[in-house]
Specification:
The complex is a heterodimer of chains A (about 110) and B (about 110). Chain A is an all-beta fold and about 110 residues long. Chain A has no helices and twelve strands. Chain A is globular and about 45 Å long. The mean pLDDT of chain A is about 95. Classes of the chains: A mainly beta (about 110), B mainly beta (about 110).
Chain lengths: ~110, ~110
């Protein structure tokens, strides 16, 4: 079975500073990887995903994540954050043959002015 | 627009009462899921269904029940046997393996 570890539970960051959220996974078979964002009292929204091909994937709001197979990681980065990026971020993995996603415990990002 | 709808957004119930949370999707997804979210505990899987008339227990199924009579609908009943039902409940649906899940906006249940 696959599993996901998010290495930071809380990440405080100043506005316009860069941020990195770390995610490691374990699986014995090929995987698909996802990052979701959750704003307060809302559901999760898909931020970006890696299925195949280029190991660097980008979202429309400036986030990017890089799939590193040798390190089994899928870290999320943004070069300059805004107050509106304050949210909880979840990393998730599924194998190519299974419907079910496994989620990490989440990372709360708090952006301060 | 296609999506997944949870209702109601907020729900208050007295202790000892059963309550049913609604989840409807028009995405033609085969699989549907129920998660519970508590502060600092991430997402915990309650039940999931990969096909109509079939469902499986997740990690914390005790005190909950579900049905899947239609592809579009996957209601969750929180029974009086659930010791600590106050939480944020999220429903999700999933299509082909590479599309991830689509989530509803959640139902916040408070039992008093």
């Amino acid at each position: 079975a696959q599993s996901v570890t998010q290495l930071d539970s809380q990440v405080p960051v100043f506005e316009e500073a860069p941020v990195e959220l770390r995610c490691n996974y374990s699986s014995s078979v090929s995987v698909y990887l996802f990052w979701y964002v959750q704003y307060p009292n809302q559901g999760l929204q898909l931020l970006l995903k890696y299925l195949s091909g280029s190991t660097l994937v980008e979202s429309i709001n400036g986030f990017e994540a890089e799939f590193n197979k040798s390190q089994t990681s899928f870290h999320l980065r943004k070069p300059s954050v805004h107050i509106s990026d304050t949210a909880e971020y979840f990393c998730a993995v599924r194998t190519v043959n299974d419907y079910k996603l496994s989620f990490g415990a989440g990372t709360t990002v708090t952006v301060r002015a | 627009d296609g999506g997944i709808t949870q209702s109601p957004k907020y729900l208050f119930r007295k202790e000892g009462q059963n309550v049913t949370l609604s989840c409807e999707q028009n995405l033609n997804h085969d699989a549907m899921y129920w998660y519970r979210q508590d502060p600092g505990q991430g997402l915990r899987l309650i039940y999931y269904s990969q096909i109509v008339n079939d469902f499986q227990k997740g990690d914390i199924a005790e005190g909950y029940s579900v049905s899947r009579e239609k592809k579009e609908s996957f209601p969750l009943t929180v029974t009086s046997a659930q010791k600590n039902p106050t939480a944020f409940y999220l429903c999700a649906s999933g299509g082909q393996a590479n599309y991830g899940y689509t989530f509803g906006s959640g139902t916040r249940l408070t039992v008093v």
